[in-house]
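Thread: "does anyone have the structure for this chain?"

Original post by V.I.:
We have the sequence but no experimental structure in hand. Need at least a predicted one for the grant figures.
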Amino acid sequence: MMVRGKVALVTGAASGIGKAIAECFVREGAAVVLSDLDAEHGEATREAMRAGGGDVVFVRSDVSNPADSEKAVNTAIEKFGQLDCACNNAGIGGEQNATADMSIDGWNRVIAINLSGVFYGMKHQIPAMLKSGGGAIVNVASILGQVGFANSSGYVAAKHGVVGLSKNAALEYATQNVRVNSIGPAFIHTPLIKSLEENQRAYDALVALHPMGRLGKPEEVAELVVWLCSSKASFVTGAYYAVDGGYLAR
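Reply from O.Q.:
Generated one for you, tokens below.
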């Protein structure tokens, strides 16, 4: 097991990619703190994982609130005594509009959750890891942390910011045994994307953007996250890994 005996924190863990990441951490031997704003699905995820033998707790947390990010880290310390791994995954798609037409509120909301939320997470995760001798952080950016996508200025700006923030933190803590990396999923088959299947033409167009001819699976993203948090990736920091079916190779 890649992370046996480790303690991991996953934000946005109630569904989709975050849930798959948390499940993979458990399969690979970690205790997990599930963090999400959605308490109903978060509690249900916790119960399902406990029923399967997982050592997990749930904390309701809004990543755009610095105090909630601190609370999530404190929960890991209180329940498990340490924090070794963190995946800052929580995010939203945000308002869809051309740059000049995007509302100020829409811009502020997506930046607060998708970028500031990652900063708030690391601000509290890194000191906890330093106290326990080190750790690994994986920040979930996107393929849109590397390229543009029309009518998604806020999202694209935030995800580019996540990549840069991750590189900077990696440099700062490289000699202190804290590794920081980011990943770039393409379009992944989650409940959010599943709704597009009702419009076959739109769904097929989305699939066609990926040279492999299909969307990704949450589990495929999860495996990369857990590997990056494991000792198998001990010399990997400051990197950006795409998990995109070839999207960025075009």
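V.I.: this helps a lot. The chain has one domain: 7-188+219-249.
O.Q.: and The helical segments are 16-27, 39-51, 66-80, 104-131, 153-172, 191-194, 200-208, 218-229.
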